[in-house]
Structure formats: C-alpha cells, structure tokens
C-alpha cells in the first residue's frame, strides 16, 4: 500500500496541538451556535434526546397512573388520547432515533480515524431542524392541542372529519421537520463511513459498530421518505382538501397505512441495529477476545436491513389484505429471526470462548440479551396470522413492542453510555449507583411489561382510557403501574449517576476498559480535531495490536500532522480498500445552518397557522440561505483558496472529480428516489385498488408537450455531461456558455411542463386522480427549477474563477441532479401521460 506522509514530523507536539486547536477549536458565547464540530453536535443531539426522553417518560407515567385502577377519571378521554399519542411519538421520533444518531455522530469519526464528519454544516442543520421540530411538536402539549390519533396517525381518524383541531397538523408538520434532520444525518453517516476512514482501513477491517451504523444510515435514507410523502399528502388533504385518503374522491385510507409502515417497520431495525452495534462492540472488549464470526455478523446486518423492508404488511393483517399476501409477509416476518439469531449466537459464542468481566456496561448487555430474546420470541408469535388476529390491538402488542424497543434499544444504549462515559468526561461512573439503577430498571421493566402480555391475552384492548371493575384486568394493571414507577426510579438513578459522575467520578485512566478501537486513542475528553495525526490501520484491533499507537498519534508521527495551511483537513479514502485518494478540506463554523433551520421553522409555523403567504416568503428566504451556504464551497476564498499540499500528498478534494460532495449528492438522490418511488406506488395503488378511483376518459396531460419538455431536459443533461467530460480532460473552453445553454434548456423544460399543467385544468380538490397528478407535476417542476438555479450558479462561479479545469469538482455534482431529473421526468411522463392512454381506467 502506498504510504502517505508517514515520516516522523519534526514538530513540537505541543505547538502542533495548539495550532490545530486554533483551526478546529469551538467558539464560546453566542457564536457557539455556529459550531459544526461532530463531537459537540453529537453531544447536543444526545442531551436534547434525553430531555425529550424525560418528557416521554412523564407521559408514560401519566398513562400508567390512569390505568392503575378501573373507572379512573384522572384524565379525560381526549387528554388520555393526546398523552398516549405524544408518548409514542416523542419516544420514537424525538428520542430513539436522534439519540442513536447523536451517538453515531459523536463516535463514528473517532472510530474510523477521521477528524470530523464529511459534511459538518449538514450535521449542524440536522441538529437545529431536530431541535425546532421537537419544540414545535411538544408545544402542542402545553396548549392542549396535541395529536390524539395514535402515534401512527391512521386515516381517517387523523383526517379533518374526525380530527378537526390542529393536533394532526402539529404531528405532520413537526415530524416532517424532524425527518429532515434524520435524513441529513443518514446521508452524512453513509458518506463519512465510506469515504473518510483512515488510511488502510479497508471495509473488512472496519469496526463492527461502523457496519451497523452504515446499515442504519442507509435504511434511514431509503425508509424515511415514504413517511415524508405520506405526511405531505395528509397535510395537503387537511389544509386544502385534496382527497388522497378519502374513498368518495377516489382515495383510500389504507394508502396511509402502507406509506406509514413502509417507514415504520424498517424503523424498528433502524433503532435496533445501532444498539446491536453497541453490543457487538462491548462484548469482545469485556470478553477479552475478538468477536467470533465477524463476517457472519456483517452478513447478518446486511440481510436484516434488506429483509426489514419486506415486512411492513404484517402490521396490517387485519385490514383485509389478500390471503396470499398474508402468507408471504408472515413467512418474511419469521425469516428475519435468522439474521437476528446469528448475532445472538455470535455474542454467546464470544462470551463462551472469552473471559467475561461483569463490569457495569456488561450488566446492561446481559439485561439486553434476556429481554430482547423474549421480545423476539413474541415477535415470531405475532408473525403468525391466526395468532396476530387474536391479539391485534391488545396490550399483548404493546408489551411485545416495548420488549423489542426498550430491550433492544434502551438497555444497549445505557450499556454504551456507561462504556463511553470516560471518553465523554474523563471520569468513571459509580459502580454502586449504576448497579442499583440497573436492577431497579430491569425488575421494574419486566414487572410492567411481562404482566402486560397476560393483560393482552385476557383481551384488554390498547388505547382505552379506562376499564370497568370486574373485567379481570384490575390486578394486572395495578402490578404493571406499580412496576412502572420502580422502572422510573431505576432510570432516575442511572441519570443521577451520569450527572454526578461529571463532578464526583474518579478520574479515568487512559483506555480504562482496554478496548481495541481507535476512539480510545483520543484524549479524554477528546479534542475538537480528535487526532493530531491520522494513522495507517490495517487491523481490526489497532489498539490491541499496537498499544503505543495513541502515543505516536499524539506526537504527530502519522499522516496530516500539519496545520500551517489553516485548513480543516482529513483523508479521503477509497470506499473499499481504504487507500488514500485525496485530502478532504472541511468548512469551518457557520451561521448558515442555524439561519436556514430557523427559516424552515417559520415555514412550519406559518403552515400550521395557515398563513400561507408568510410560508411562501420564508421558503424563498430559506432557499437563499441554503444557496449562499453552497456558494462558500470548493475554491471559494472561505473554503480553500490555496490548493497547496505537501510534496507526496494527494490533492485537495475540490481539485479532483470525486470528492465527498459527489457521494453526498448521490445518497441524497437515493433518498429522493425513495420519495419518488413511493409516489409512483401511491399512484398505481390508488389506480388499481381504490374502489372509487376514476380515470378521465381523455387524459388531461398533453403527451406532446410533456414529450417536448422531456426532450429539453434530456438535451440539457447532454450539454452538462459533455462539459463534465471536458473537465475530466482538463478542457474548460466555453464552460460558462455551456452552463447557460444547459440552464436555458432546463428553463424550457420547466416552462413546457408548467404549460402542460395549466392546460390540464385539474380539479385537485374534487378527485384523487387530479390531486395525485398535481403533486407529481409540482415535484417535476421543483426539481427542474432547482437544476436551472444550480446550473446558473455554476456559470457564475466560472466567472469568479471558482470552477474550471483547476477546480472541476462541482459540475460533476450538478450533473447527477440532471441525470436524476431526466429519469424521473420520463417516468412521470410514462405513468401520468402514456400508460393512461394505453390502459385506460
């Protein structure tokens, strides 16, 4: 392998540390809002997630108080519905996923030997979208206008007819806002893991935790867009009356369930996989040996991620799905037990062959193994259609879900927090308080939810605010409620332990658990730049194989131990082999992510209050902020005006054709493609299934105009591809004119598509057909307009000298969008204009 910049650096390590701190250090005071560093943002995600966890926990206590005795009037039915809906929503959307994403954001760069995530401003935008979205959603509790249709918001319960207040709107807009954050983090993590591992860390040498996070991030990218589409459609139905889910207009309420569970079931594994990654990280460390069957675990992760997208219908066995489909999804649901079992057996084999030390983190891991296996067994029971019918919508399902999610996520999460606490703070937690916290939590959890299985088998339905005395459910509900307060006491003790350890914990020695992965090569707590120098790693256990590695890294004896250029730098490596390709230079702290998120928050609030003009104004403002942010990239003076590197080092990524921005755009387009395919699924589903769907006798969309528009976008794409090919060959003559020509062709496409829409004379509030068609055309117009704007900006950047043969990177990124637009536009033409003419209604 080519060795890059490996000679010993003749720097004073202390001076180098100070120089790097000057470049990477975090500002204080109000300017701390501009921080884009992954360590700080990861901690912010986790702290914010814990705040929402406390809110969700208090709501759960209210629920258990209400159900402790029969015929209780502690809460009214409406308030109870709001509390249960918000408990599920807060725990799933504002705690579980953001918390695990925060942990991943904090750990991944440290584990793979990088100094930061690859798009740090995107991380910052994601955090503020999460924060603002969470505040908007939880504020509905204060004004007693929280959503009350269940955390899955089934239509028609959540539709205007049965939920006329703003509760459903708070959910739809707030959750969509939060999902921007989740998808942003997903994109960020995928590209960072694939392209910024340290030199030599091939995929098969990567820590298992990074494999789990890679799978989770890809699942977020693919799994979240269906729910975003569903939320957009339901909000359009509620706000302006477009009947996507109303039978009378040609819609179907079951479409919502399909879109929700296309997201909802993979979400279970999105939550489980990072937690399993924590377990796969901790067990080898405390067993004192490498994990058994590394390759089997990686295969199990990939299989589980794939299968999880084929199970969503098992949540819908009782809604009238055809028997053949039920049999298929029942078998698929049981099949997912295979990769799960592989991991469980690998963990057990590693413990069996090692010498386990039952430290505090391992106590939580053992609790996880017991609870999660029980939850998995009840999951197999629920996969059987006859049993599913019997216990559907009972407390048995509630108990199963908590065994899987709390056992499968919360216990490993606490194990991980205790394991990495010394890295966060440099101090050790209290063994005594921690053990008390564990046993109270473990006993309280099982006392609450094990008993709830029996309550469900006795027939108690979920989501009822009270029950009559003499039903036979009294003693079980009372025991569950008492145990839930024991559970709360355990969690409170854990949180108290974590809070106190920052002040009273014993100082931790370096690498206190004798771990094998690179995050423990950091100082404790870590510096803003993670590592003074970036090592070559060709083993899965770098700190076990070279215990002196942290010392040599801190002395600057490895790669990129230079700060005189003033840039934030790290390696850009091959996604498979880990060979160094280029030096990635990262942007510094910025106000733009905060400004953009704040503008989007105003859009969200304006839509909520139906002030659409203000929403439109702030959409434009948010767009301006985002475009201004994108302007400061590449060869811009604020990014990297000086392309100089040390002799023997690779070039800066902005001077190549394959930087991380290209990968980020590709992953974003995968998410976008998932959204688009969900739209096509909805179109064909309603066309073929909805009983009142009506296809017009004469298709309203002009095939001729749409075809000419498709020809224009194709021609524009050809122009872009030609100029990108020229840049690859270091030719940039006529570059600016080519950009403007492509933009003109794109504008022609937008104009023609807009004309076709105007001529179609749609009635989107009258028929579902017209409403779905309108959404598809608006989607095409938005993407066409975006391509025109970005292409014009590229032409302007050529004039400023930011783009050219010397800096050819950005046009390749824009070219990806053009290719995407060509494919999706012609698919739309086929679905909306050609097939209706061929098949008819």
UniProtKB/TrEMBL annotation:
Places the protein is found: Cell membrane
SUPFAM superfamilies with a match to the protein in the record: Cytochrome c oxidase subunit I-like, Cytochrome c oxidase subunit III-like
Annotated Cytochrome oxidase subunit I profile domain residues: 18-538
Reactions this protein catalyses: 4 Fe(II)-[cytochrome c] + O2 + 8 H(+)(in) = 4 Fe(III)-[cytochrome c] + 2 H2O + 4 H(+)(out)
Membrane-spanning intervals of the chain: 41-63, 83-108, 128-150, 170-194, 206-228, 268-287, 294-315, 327-351, 363-389, 401-421, 433-455, 475-500, 591-608, 662-686, 698-719, 739-759, 771-793, 813-835
Keyword Cell membrane assigned: yes
A Pfam match: COX1
UniProt keyword annotations, A-Z: Cell membrane, Copper, Electron transport, Heme, Iron, Membrane, Metal-binding, Respiratory chain, Translocase, Transmembrane, Transmembrane helix, Transport
Recorded metabolic or biological pathway in which this protein acts: Energy metabolism; oxidative phosphorylation
Domain Heme-copper oxidase subunit III family profile stretches: 580-837
Gene3D superfamilies recorded: 1.10.287.70, Cytochrome c oxidase, subunit III, four-helix bundle (1.20.120.80), Cytochrome c oxidase-like, subunit I domain (1.20.210.10)
The protein's Enzyme Commission number: 7.1.1.9
Membrane topology qualifier: Multi-pass membrane protein
Top-rank lineage group of the source organism: Bacteria
Family: Belongs to the heme-copper respiratory oxidase family.
Protein name: cytochrome-c oxidase
